[in-house]
């Protein structure tokens, strides 16, 4: 009985390691290599990637600043525009309408529809200030918005990446890596200290705050 349990556990471990070393990591590489194999997506990817990097540099420089409802709303609009382009890409090359693309079973269009629906939800939340400020700013932050746009573009524009649980897990791993890199960029940038703060007295600073 004990030997059977050990053998079963060993089999599960071996299968898991084999899955991770072949399917899972291969899928991560396939997603990351998608822009190289599909250069047409670079027109959408590069501006988003540049925006993500520059925004992290900005908030790293001015760490005391917060996002703001207007900026959060603008981020949601950007995501909506990206999703519209993804919708166009799923049906236009085939000469289909959106309705036709849905009914012919094009799974890529559901990625675009999910992103579009999420963008509409964010627009509603940010326009009406529906959620607490910190929570709304978190889900509408440039890092998450840009990541969702980047992943959506790579999945929709690439015809060789299937939509399954392996891809979902690979996207989560890439998200974690993206957040780590964004945090490192944020921390690496020296904080800006206004020269005027060096000559103001404590009373002056209090008056300035008020």
Characterize the structure shown.
The chain is mainly alpha-helical and 210 residues long. It has one domain. The protein has ten helices and no strands. It has helices spanning 2-37, 42-61, 69-91, 98-103, 108-128, 133-139, 142-157, 165-188, 196-199, 202-209. The longest helix has 36 residues, at 2-37. The chain is globular, with a radius of gyration of 22 Å.
> What is the alpha-carbon Rg in Å?
22 Å
Q: Helical element count?
A: 10
- Number of separate structural domains: 1
Mean pLDDT rating: 78
Show the helix and strand layout.
Elements: H1 2-37, H2 42-61, H3 69-91, H4 98-103, H5 108-128, H6 133-139, H7 142-157, H8 165-188, H9 196-199, H10 202-209
Helix pairs in contact: 1-7, 1-8, 2-7, 2-8, 3-5, 3-7, 5-7, 7-8
Spell out the key features of this protein.
single chain, 210 residues, mainly alpha
Short description:
With 210 residues, this protein is mainly alpha-helical.
